[in-house]
TrEMBL record:
It comes from the Bacteria. It comes from Amycolatopsis deserti. This is Anti-sigma regulatory factor. Transmembrane segments: none annotated. Residues 6-147 form the MEDS domain. SUPFAM superfamilies: ATPase domain of HSP90 chaperone/DNA topoisomerase II/histidine kinase. PANTHER family: ANTI-SIGMA-F FACTOR RSBW (PTHR35526:SF3), ANTI-SIGMA-F FACTOR RSBW-RELATED (PTHR35526). Residues 186-293 form the Histidine kinase/HSP90-like ATPase domain. It holds the Pfam family MEDS.
Amino acid sequence: MTAFVHPALFYSSDEEYLDALVPFVTDGLARREPVAVAVPGDRLRVLRPAVGSDDVLWLDMNEAGRNPGRIIPTVLRRFADAHPDRHVRIIGEPIWAGRSATEYPACAQHEALINHAFTGRDVTIVCPYDTVALEPDVVADARATHPEVWEASRRYVSGEYAPDDVVSRYNQPVPAAAPVEFAVTRDAEVRQARRWAATQARRLGLDDDRLPDLELIVTELVTNSLRHAGGSCRVELWPAEGHVCCAVHDEGYLADPLAGRRPRPHGEPGGRGLLMVHQLADLVRTYTHPGRTTQYALLRL
């Protein structure tokens, strides 16, 4: 195989899950192709014993993909880039029934953006979807984000494939609940914004050991806004479904939906700000259109 392959696997039972994925893994191992499996913990407990091999990289997607925005750079690209001269097989299951309504837009966009991130790469990434546990709208989105669909009885090209439409449709703001805010208009105020955010987050219940993460997130997002988006921004914080949500609003436009989702090129300065935010936060969402962009970073309480 020499082309990028990205099917959605629809399964309705453990048997269908194993019937499709065990041969996918074992065939890859027989061909001496690197194989990685990144699925939720309960799926690992089903698939790993059935494969019975330590020659696979096994990852719990509940942790590795808690923030969907970190999956491309630190799971998929990290594994594929480690084997540049070989066909690579990956199973990635970033969407499961426990995902919240706040998380889901980032999940759907992630699945759509995989297609751009791996164009021309010699990689197969299979994304399983539990058609019993997931809502019909989620399964419909999978047909739009994957050029192929695998089912128990057949495999076919998706007639609904339209990944850019999915990225656009889930370009949505995160609803705010009585936020507190801090305006930043110059570089000298970045430190003040960072300290203000830490004070507010502690008041909202964020653990002290997560405050340095929040401070770094605020520093990176505010600095990006000052440098690239009109020279001013506004920071807001509020509680959101067991998280503290930090939003940074500015007057710029983020035209690249893969920003922050690529590994930093070796030897090149910069390019780490949004990537770092994705690594530190439990969820990152972006809402952007000409004249306004908001970056949302959520940290669990």
